[in-house]
Input
Amino acid sequence: MELEFKDNVKNWNNQFSRGLTYVESLIDSKGFIDSTITKLIKDFEELEQSMKIQTAALEELLSTSEPQKEDLEDIINKRIRKQSKEKRKNSCDSKIGYLLKKVRDMDKDQQNTSGLVVESVRYSRKDHISKKDIEVPMRNTICKHVYDKATVELYIENCKRSRTLCQCPVPSCKNKKPLNMNDMESYPDFFNYLVD
Output
């Protein structure tokens, strides 16, 4: 019974780690944090705490000579009370702590860049996708980069067809959200800001 219990705990830990890896890759691929991701990390943290308590209680119960059902409930309740009396451990050394720190850092970065003031904007006439002159300018509402309408439509369609990630093609662009025509707006003022 004890061996089966340890195998189940090991399997649970593997699944838990995979879930955290998925959350981390979601954070990295989106490039920004939203409330859903933050809630997901908090849920993982609560789940981890709950599993630690229950696993410790089950291990304690397995070490007794004749375990009873009531014993398990008592042990779990004692551990929950003990944990609430103690200071909650900071999980910064765990993967959850790492993800929470990453979220806080990304939030700080987003807040720091929100105070920037752009004094002037200059655009190149060349489209970053086709390397040809832009004829019908479309601006990405997220990162503010400008593309030619026909070129960006074709680029998005090709990415969908080949099932590849379709991000802003401008080098060093921080926008990790996939390009979508719903995020584009017509930008006739583009021609007023061209670099000669």
Notes: Residues 153 and 181 are 7 Å apart (CA to CA). The first strand starts at residue 137 and ends at 140. The chain has a mean pLDDT of 76. Strands lie at 137-140, 146-148, 184-186.
